[in-house]
Amino acid sequence: MVMFKKIKTFEVAFSEPDKVYSSGDKVAGRVVVEVAEVTRVTRVRVLACGVAKVLWIKGPQQCKQEMEYLRYEDVLTLDDHPADADGSVILRPGNTYEYKFGFELPQGPLGTTFKGKYGCVDYWVKAFLDRPSFPTQDIKKRFEVMDQIDVNTPDLMSPVAAKKEKKVSCMFIPDGHVSVSARIDRKGFCEGDDICINADFENTCSRIVMPKAAIVAKHTYLANGQTKVFSQKLSCVRGNHIVSGMSESWRGKTLRVKKIKPSILGCNILRVEYFLQVRGLKRQPTPIFLVLGFC
What we know:
Blueprint lengths: L6 E8 L5 E2 L4 E10 L3 E3 L1 E16 L2 E16 L12 E3 L5 E8 L9 E2 L3 E13 L2 E9 L1 E2 L8 H4 L2 E11 L2 E12 L3 E2 L4 E10 L8 E12 L2 E13 L8 E10 L13 E10 L8 E7 L1
Parallel strand pairs: 2-12, 15-21
Antiparallel strand pairs: 1-3, 3-8, 4-7, 5-6, 5-10, 9-10, 10-11, 13-14, 14-16, 16-19, 17-18, 17-20, 20-21
């Protein structure tokens, strides 16, 4: 575009471009500017934001909510480069100008970078280039944040167990029952860990039981007093068919935790949780939900 012809390069570069940041970390970088002609720059500004956003449509209503984790603003200067009385500087072609910036992420829980069906948690740095008689030019670059969860806390190291029985009927006539009991030794897991499952399945009905366990992600979005839930099966393991009058036991059956984002539990408008779902009957499920914390 003609209005921007004097700007050859305008970009945001992080000092550690591949780093995944956590609360309290310093985010540092520079805004790089190169010009094709002699150019006066009034100022260069940066805005850093971290925001959780939720949005979905329910009939005529738009359910929308935002929560801010981070907001940082600054006006940048050039080292060893004289400025005029009004603070503006003259940039000349053939030189690379670097405006340095740096800020610390807030202490305490931060939402992990996330993109879901009805919401996201996003972090970015946006730079603004102001010049006389020209519209403000801007550029945005994202960075990733991960909220660290200590899976070695007593709560996440404690076992979880559950049991459920379902009576089955056929044409309103009782047809026995299916029972499922399951136990895992802890609730906290990391990517690459194996979940060791102990479970017992019993079938006294005339139907065939297909025992299986699955890791399920549950995303909960909250806005305008409304709630939207999205669930997704991530991985599963199956056992053998159990015919009427038979049972099956799992002792140490494993299910690996594949690539997964940490749970998001401290956000008022968006939650990401993971469950181990153990079930028996196929068409009339008898599920047991065991809550797992992931890091």
